[in-house]
């Protein structure tokens, strides 16, 4: 998961995000967005308007993973600089994903085993 923080939600910010993601992950088959005009303008600027998909429920998969990030945004309002907020969001996402496991999917024994393995790996990487 990639987190990207901007002050504004305009064409410039959307264009920067799309270019950055395409450089990192390559040319996509489809780009699912909401109906905000900035995404359409950014995709028009790079010539990828045909890739944009905006359906009624298509964006649910895009929006739902952002819910934990939206929860953290309230705590992040104390940041004075966007750079420090971006650094925090990037590090927090990777650490959070390392330790987060869905408890309802695994049995208690498997959950504890996976949690212990994640903690051991975290301690080993922190010791280096």
Give a concise summary:
The protein has 128 residues and is mostly helical. It has helices at 11-25, 37-46, 60-63, 67-76, 82-99, 108-127, and strands at 31-32, 52-53.
Question: What's the helix and strand layout?
Answer:
Elements: H1 11-25, E1 31-32, H2 37-46, E2 52-53, H3 60-63, H4 67-76, H5 82-99, H6 108-127
Parallel strand pairs: 1-2
Helix pairs in contact: 1-2
Please give a structural write-up.
The protein is mainly α and 128 residues long. The chain folds into two domains: 1-78, no CATH class; 81-128, no CATH class. The protein has six helices and two strands. It has helices spanning 11-25, 37-46, 60-63, 67-76, 82-99, 108-127; strands spanning 31-32, 52-53. A two-stranded parallel ribbon has the order 1-2. The radius of gyration is 18 Å and the shape is globular. The protein starts with 10 loop residues before the first helix and ends with a helix. The mean pLDDT is 78.
Helix-and-strand structural type: mainly alpha
How big a fraction of the residues is strand?
Answer: under 5%
Question: Sheet with the most strands?
Answer: 2 strands, parallel
Helix content: 55-70%
* Run of helices and strands: HEHEHHHH
| Count of extended strands | 2
Radius of gyration: 18 Å
Shape: globular
Q: How are the strands ordered across the major sheet?
A: 1-2
Q: Which regions are unreliable across 5 or more consecutive residues at pLDDT < 50?
A: none
Distance between the termini: 25 Å
Q: Determine the number of helices (DSSP H or I, runs of at least 4 residues).
A: 6
> How many discrete domains?
2
Mean pLDDT: 78
